[in-house]
Amino acid sequence: MRDRALTIEVSDEATTSPHLRHARVQDEDGRGLLIVAPLAGRWGARCTPDGKVTWVEEALDSDEQPIPVGG
Fold first, then answer.
1. CB-CB neighbours of 31 under 10 Å
2. How far, in Å, CA of 60 to CA of 5, rounded?
3. CA 46 – CA 10 distance, rounded (Å)
4. The whole model's pTM is what?
5. What is the spatial distance between Cα 65 and Cα 48, in angstroms, rounded to a whole number?
6. How much is the pLDDT for 70?
7. Which residues does 31 contact at the CB level (< 8 Å), separation at least 6?
8. Residue 69 carries which DSSP code?
9. What's the chain's Rg over C-alpha atoms?
10. What is the pLDDT of residues 22-48, one digit of tens each?
11. 5-26 as b/e, with b when 16 or more CB fall inside 10 Å?
């Protein structure tokens, strides 16, 4: 938690940037960001030497307006 916001991070070894997409029924991945992004105040990703970290952030102050997704 930082500055009245909860940040959740997930890392993986892929080097591709995350993007919102509708996974097909047979896909084994690709659903997480589509589920989480509408609920989060902000989301993004950063590259690491081992892949990438995707993060979502939600304000903890109920009076604060959420920042648009992807912003």
1. 12
2. 5
3. 11
4. 0.69
5. 30
6. 57
7. 23
8. T
9. 13
10. 888 888 877 888 888 888 889 999 999
11. eeeeeeeeeeeeebeeeeeeee
Answer whether 40's CB lies under 8 Å from 53's CB.
no
How many angstroms from the chain centroid is the CA of residue 14?
15
**Single-letter code of the amino acid located at 36:** V
Burial of 45 (0-12, 13-18, 19+ CB in 10 A): middle
3-class secondary-structure state, position 16: coil
Q: Which SS3 state, helix, strand or coil, does residue 36 take?
A: helix
Token couple for 54: 């995707």
Contact between 7 and 54 under an 8 Å Cβ cutoff? The reply is no
Residue spans per domain, the chain: 5-59
Element containing residue 59 per DSSP (H, E): strand 51-59
- The number of beta carbons lying within 10 Å of the beta carbon of residue 54 is 20
Distance in angstroms (rounded) separating the CA atoms of residues 52 and 60: 25
The pair of three-digit structure tokens given for residue 37, joined into one six-digit string: 């992004």
